[in-house]
Every structure is written in C-alpha cells, then in structure tokens.
Write a structure and sequence with these properties.
- By secondary structure, the protein is an alpha/beta fold.
- The chain is built from 10 helices and 13 strands.
- The protein folds into 3 domains: about 80 residues, Orthogonal Bundle (Arc Repressor Mutant, subunit A), CATH 1.10.10.10; about 100 residues, D-Maltodextrin-Binding Protein, domain 2; about 100 residues, Periplasmic binding protein-like II (D-Maltodextrin-Binding Protein, domain 2, 3-Layer(aba) Sandwich), CATH 3.40.190.10.
- The model has no long low-confidence stretch (mean pLDDT about 90).
Length: about 300
C-alpha cells in the first residue's frame, strides 16, 4: 500500500466511476485501475463492487475511506509546507510546459523573470499534459502550461491564456507551400499525419474538427506521438499535418507552415486552448510573480500563437 494508491482509491470513492476519477488525477485509466488492484491485493480485500454500469464501495472500502482521505490530506499538507520552505530558501521556480508553449510562450516569460529576479533559478520540464498535471499535484512542479482537461481537479487553479492557431505543415516542395494560405477543402485528398489521441487529444481533435466543419473526412494515413516526429515525416514527404503555429519554432528543414483559411460559414470553434495551472492555496512568491507577469504581458507573450 502506498500514498498514490490511496489517492486513487479516495478519488474513485468520490466519483464512483474509474474513468472520471482517472481524468481528475490526470493519469491513464489503465494505470489508475492497476493502482486500485494493487491496493486491494495488498489489503487482501475488495474495495469496490464493479459491473459494466455501476461502481460501489464494499463494506471494507467504506471502512477504509475516511482513514485514506486523512492520510492523503496530511501527506499533501506536509509536502506543501516543506516545499514552501525549500522554495523560500532556494529561490527556485519549477515549471512544466507542453512542447508548443515551451517553444512559443516560455522563452519570453523566462527572459522577463530573469530580468526582474536575477537570483531566481528557473527549471523547465517539457512533456505532455497527461504527465505534467500529476507532477504538479505531487509537488514536483510549481507551475505548468497545459491543455486544460475536460475533468478539472478541484485542487488545481487554471488561468486560461489563449487558443493557439492551427496551421498546415507541408513539405517545402509541395505545390501549396508557396501559397499565402490553404483552405481545408484543398487538403481533402492530402495524406495526413495526426497526433495520437490518447496522448494528445486536443492536437488530434483540431484536425477532426476543422474537417468536420467543412463537411469533409480527413485522409489520415498515420498517427504519431511527438510533433518533432510529425515534422520529420512531413519533411520526408510522407504527408501533411495540421499543427499549432508555434510548432514552426521547432525548426525542421524541408517543412513550410502555411496558415489555414476557414470558410466564412464555419461556426467559431475553440481550438488548441492553453492554460497556466498551479495548486490552490499554496504560498509561493516566485510562482505568483510569474502569474502576475503572465496577466500583465500576455499580449506580448502570445504573439505568433
């Protein structure tokens, strides 16, 4: 039995739905279910009655719940207190960001933070939203820049920043590469490379939404996890890809990024949201200074998005 297993158990007891509970904690459903199973095995008793339509606590699960919640809350308070003390001594800010935010937003923000706080040590981790949010909750990161999930963890505060603009990545010798813009209708028969939805749902869905609003079905030939890999495949003439505009800052030879012209009849669609996120109720002067800068200078930081 460990703390993360108890955290998963308490969240499952709150939601009585493993999928929603996994989303709130920002972990994959398979990993979530494994934590519950290992906890039950270590205790030697089932904690939930599970059917295809229903989840309920067993008597043993109900007996464990209050103690589990208390242990998780005490551990979180202890970690938060010691992290605050450590940050006050070390003057460090640990940030995490998805790849396009790391390329487009963070350089200007980190520049301003260094100018205003020269003794502040900045650490940056680049990863996917699904991996950054658990690091934030566990205290390994202080501030993250992510695609906000559908199911919001109540421990996390979100500040919406902007919607990134989608563009089409094309091989530099492609006939469309010299255009000032490309319509979705122009891409109807183009082979497309898209991110895997399990790890990058927003980036995957932007292609699907743009084609759907045009009344078309995308010709998807490949799903890939990383944007750098996608750009490399585009450069190798394996297809085109719809990506956030800040992807163009991850320089890849042989690729042109062309704006997408949406039809005038298309309904407004919120695509590629970006938000800052941090833990509620935790005192952190360095983090709060970064958030203040974001609020004041977002128009500057958002250029090129």
């Amino acid at each position: 039995m460990d703390l993360e297993q108890l955290r998963c158990f308490a969240m499952a007891a709150d939601e009585l739905h493993f999928g929603r509970a996994a989303q709130r904690l920002g972990v994959l459903p398979a990993a979530f279910s494994r934590s519950i199973r290992l906890l039950e095995e270590s205790l030697g008793a089932p904690l939930f009655v599970r059917t295809t339509r229903h989840v309920a606590l067993t008597a043993d699960g109900a007996a464990l719940l209050d103690e589990a919640r208390d242990l998780v809350e005490r551990a979180d308070r202890l970690m938060s207190d010691f992290q605050a003390r450590s940050r006050d001594r070390g003057r460090a800010l640990r940030m995490g960001a998805i790849d396009t935010a790391s390329a487009g937003l963070l350089p200007a923000l980190m520049h301003d933070l260094r100018e205003r706080c020269p003794d502040l040590t900045l650490h940056l981790v680049e990863d996917k939203t699904a991996r950054l949010l658990p690091r934030l909750v566990s205290g390994r990161l202080d501030l993250v820049f992510v695609r906000p999930p559908e199911a919001v963890d109540k421990r996390i505060e979100y500040l919406f920043l902007l919607h990134e603009t989608p563009v089409v990545a094309l091989p530099s010798h492609h006939p469309f590469a010299a255009r000032s813009h490309v319509a979705i209708e122009d891409l109807a028969h183009e082979p497309l490379i898209v991110p895997d939805r399990k790890s990058r749902p927003h980036s995957h869905d932007v292609t699907m939404k743009l084609f759907k609003e045009a009344g078309l079905t995308p010709n998807i030939i490949q799903q890939v996890d990383e944007k750098q890999t996608i750009a490399g495949m585009v450069a190798a003439d394996m297809g085109a890809a719809i990506v956030p505009r800040w992807t163009s800052r991850m320089s890849t030879r042989g690729v042109k990024f062309i704006p997408i012209r949406r039809s005038k009849s298309a309904q407004p669609t919120d695509l590629l949201p970006l938000a800052a996120a941090w833990i509620k109720g935790l005192r952190d002067p360095a983090r709060d200074h970064a958030i203040e800068l974001l609020r004041k200078r977002l128009a500057v930081y958002a250029k090129g998005a």
